[in-house]
Amino acid sequence: MDIRIINFSEEKRPADLALYWYQAGLKSSRQQTVSLTGDITDMISQAVMDEWKQALNLLVKQENIKALEKRYPNFMQWIALITAQGPGVVLQNEHNLFSDLAITDPYDQVNDRLFVSQARTIVTRKTVFLLPDSSPSSSALYREDDRNEFIRSLSAFLSAGNTSIALAKSGNKTGGDVSIFNTVLASLFARTSQLRLDEDTGIHIKHGPLLIEGDTGTGKSAAAKHLATKMGKAMVEINLAAVSETLLETRMRGSTKGAFTDAIDKNGFFEEAHNGVLFLDELQSASLASQTQLLDLLSAISNDVWISKVGEDASKTKYDVKVVLAVNEPVSRLLAEGRLRRDLFHRIRDVVKFKSLNELFAEDRAHALLTLILTLYRWKSFNQPVFASDGKSMQALSQLFTVYEEGVIDKILCAPWPGNFRQLERFAWDLFFVLGDRTRVTNEIIDSLLKEEANRIPASFIEAQQINNEQTAPTIFSEVENIIKKNHFNLKASLPELGVYRLRTYNALKGFIRENRAQFSKGFLADSKITKIITSEIAGRKGPENYKPITS
């Protein structure tokens, strides 16, 4: 595959790769450059014109083309004209390319195919934007304004269905604490959120609390993060289901030393989220008494929250906090069943309902959403840098450009996705794991994976969700598998995230995988490390059947 690189990192051009290489935003006598405009269309256009000029300079030096110059006096003027017009114009006029020169000789007409062929090669060339993993402040996309413009134009390019670009992570560690690659990719994912934000003014969400209603996995947390990013603020995320009723007041307000037995000076949720966003998930899990405490703090028309810590005197401190609440059941049902206080509901300024993934797919006639999400997951799955610091290629760049056989996208769209985006993410990682270094997704591959997916989810679960429009949490098996894959099958590195399921030791995790191997995907089980676990003895354990993790 013919690929050009537009490099935003300090990575030097690898000697072993014959690529068209551009340095963005830097002046260099050794490398071609494109100006850092932030607009990727402009950058690619600069590169295309530069390549076109170089190609024509080489073409006119060929003997058969030199012969045209001798036979046709206006030939070099014509070369200058098509050089200025660019390869796109040449392709538009390929059938009468030499008409202005009155060339009629068949031999000469054959030669004009060289110009058309070169123009097509340049216009169809794929572009990879090489972004730094860790970046110093001198990096081209370090400035927030440049980065935001780059993300905006990249998002527009992708949303239009263009598949000729990709992002890759540079392996050149130059220091710094900003991962441009991760920041850009996270922003692109956030733009798939159902929370619509105004691109010009920043946000359209009014002051006061926001409530998001949506099934598990529909992206409520991601939407809150997107909102925080657009507001230029940090976010504090709290799952109310994980906070006991007796501790909730202290956790919300904070405490002073001596306020009660074993009390220490501790900031509350709102103080930690001052000048930022506080995301309170699973509001329906909070008791009515706990909801009353929230009611006393929130204003329907303001982000100001007045709080005194537990143990303080009557004086209160004002905090500026954008509160985002989330429920994974219909608000109407929660109100009807008395599980959501009506007076608290009336303190909420905006209510947004998120659709399920299948509902979104049904509305997406152009398949743009699914194609975009799969593209982003493909880039994300290349977690290892494309280039190493020694200049050796670590990945085949062509793998960044996935081709889907006819019918594949339709099959994914029509499949049930009760786990919504969370389930689709795991499925996409399974897909790219099975795909390996191939670039073409066949119907055979997708049929196998969808059959496997159907076997993972009981039909009764899907039917119940279709009838009741409810969503239960993804199984522990999906969560464990996702975490291990994210850590590249390094089990010890996965343990900190698996502690919530009581999988805190290496042996406990191995036992869990062995006992429940039928619940994991074939792609997961095919990894050599997992295969070894299943076939080996577990040291220091009487048997995995004695182990029962927390699953809810």
Automatic annotation (TrEMBL):
<dbReference type="InterPro" id="IPR027417">
    <property type="entry name" value="P-loop_NTPase"/>
</dbReference>
<keyword id="KW-0067">ATP-binding</keyword>
<dbReference type="GO" id="GO:0005524">
    <property type="term" value="F:ATP binding"/>
</dbReference>
<keyword id="KW-0547">Nucleotide-binding</keyword>
<dbReference type="InterPro" id="IPR003593">
    <property type="entry name" value="AAA+_ATPase"/>
</dbReference>
<dbReference type="GO" id="GO:0006355">
    <property type="term" value="P:regulation of DNA-templated transcription"/>
</dbReference>
<protein>
    <submittedName>
        <fullName>Sigma 54-interacting transcriptional regulator</fullName>
    </submittedName>
</protein>
<dbReference type="InterPro" id="IPR002078">
    <property type="entry name" value="Sigma_54_int"/>
</dbReference>
<feature type="domain" description="Sigma-54 factor interaction">
    <location>
        <begin position="222"/>
        <end position="433"/>
    </location>
</feature>
<dbReference type="Pfam" id="PF00158">
    <property type="entry name" value="Sigma54_activat"/>
</dbReference>
